[in-house]
Amino acid sequence: MERTWPVFVAAFGATYTFSIGNVTAPRLGPELGASRGETALVLAAFAVAFAAGLILAGRLGDRYGRRRLLTIGLLALALTSAFAAAAPGLWWLVAARVLQGTASALVMPQTLAIVQTSGGPHAKARGLALFTASSGVGTVAGQVLGGLVMGLDLPFAGWRGAVLTSAIPGLVALLGARRLPAHAPDSTERPDLGGALRVGIPLLALVAGLSLGPAVGWAWWTFALVALGLLGLYGFWLNQGRRERAGHPVLVAPSSLRLPALRLGLSMAVLLFAGYGAFSYEYSMLTQVGLGLTPVESGLALTAFAGTFVLAGLRMPRITARFGDRTMELAAGLLAAGLVLLGVASWVTQGEGAGIWIGCFEVLGLLLGVAQASQYGPLVGTVMAAVPHRVAGLAGGLFTTAQQASLGLGIATIGGVLGALAPSLGWQHAFAVALGVQVVTTALFWVLARRLRGRARRPAMEERKEIHP
């Protein structure tokens, strides 16, 4: 396990890079002349590129060697972070975030694969726990450390300095990458490069249209981008079906989604992470723009929420042992209650100053952090237990892809509600309405969790009949 420390630093760096975007977002408008829709696009560009490249990157690691792909990805992440920090304008920054997302996609599948293939069952369990903790800490650190760097009175600080810190974890991990265990390539299958482009470009078009639409009054070209994105994704699905029937390599096997448990689990992942991505973005915009907090104050105020999220994730085995297969339903109910209370507090404290709202958030953040961690923690394990082993690898890749794509879509859609309503309602009232949308998505998650619980109780043989009968 001592030799694999670089993979945990790498996992930290990938989530840290996404989180840095949230804390720097409010500063992009004044310095780059970006509208709220364009700011949301900067954040979503990373998540979309990350999502589009994950499955392909995993198969590239199987084909050409995981340590080799990890090293390339870490170097690329460091270089693209420097490119993003030096971006001379908005669209240069969007391009840099796409490249950062692509580099992170190269890194993440290799880290998890190396952990899963290093050592015996005990070492694997310990490695997975450290991997989860590293990813969670990266999310926390991006908000807190990014805010601290932005608050430094240095010539190269501000949002550019915070973005540049994304290069540091990659460079540190590179120092030990050569000592990682080498695994011989275990696949001779030719990767579906065309499939990655067919899903990545439409996703980016869809998110761009949804992000920019509210800012430009839904001009015709934003509708065109959304339509092209949806048509492109439909074309990707048809293409994958044809390739699968012909026996060619595919990114996503359409037949695998005949499994009801997998369909339910992916739908729940979309709802959960769309809400989480939107919440992170809305929080940064409200606290820094609406309430006038500095980036340092905004990041520190999030510590209680983020800390309980990480701690609950580390103690998830005990939580699930206590509440069993009802854990996700109970967590969704707690989250909905916390969101309602925070929405009410935001509505009634508008105009009362930042201190009162921050006090309410510090208390409710403890509940929200535990609830969100308890939603996602059992989700993957429940679904993986209900699918045949031969599609387990694909199921895991689909979950990670759905997670990252939903982060970007959540910022573009639910986060767009905040930007559209803030000028007329005020920031705290608009935040309350956006939280109301998330209460709806959380209620849908609860409904699907109940259905998944019933589905997971079915015998494995019944599930196997759902695919390739």
Automatic annotation (TrEMBL):
Coiled coil: none annotated. Keywords: Membrane, Transmembrane, Transmembrane helix. The keyword Cell division does not apply. GO terms for cellular component: plasma membrane. The keyword Disulfide bond does not apply. GO terms for molecular function: transmembrane transporter activity. Residues 3-453 form the Major facilitator superfamily (MFS) profile domain. It is a multi-pass membrane protein. The chain crosses the membrane at residues 7-28, 40-57, 69-92, 127-150, 156-175, 218-238, 259-279, 299-316, 328-348, 354-371, 391-421, 427-449. Pfam families: MFS_1 (PF07690). It is found in: Cell membrane. PANTHER family: ACTINORHODIN TRANSPORTER-RELATED, MAJOR FACILITATOR SUPERFAMILY MULTIDRUG TRANSPORTER MFSC. This is Major Facilitator Superfamily protein. It comes from Amycolatopsis sacchari.
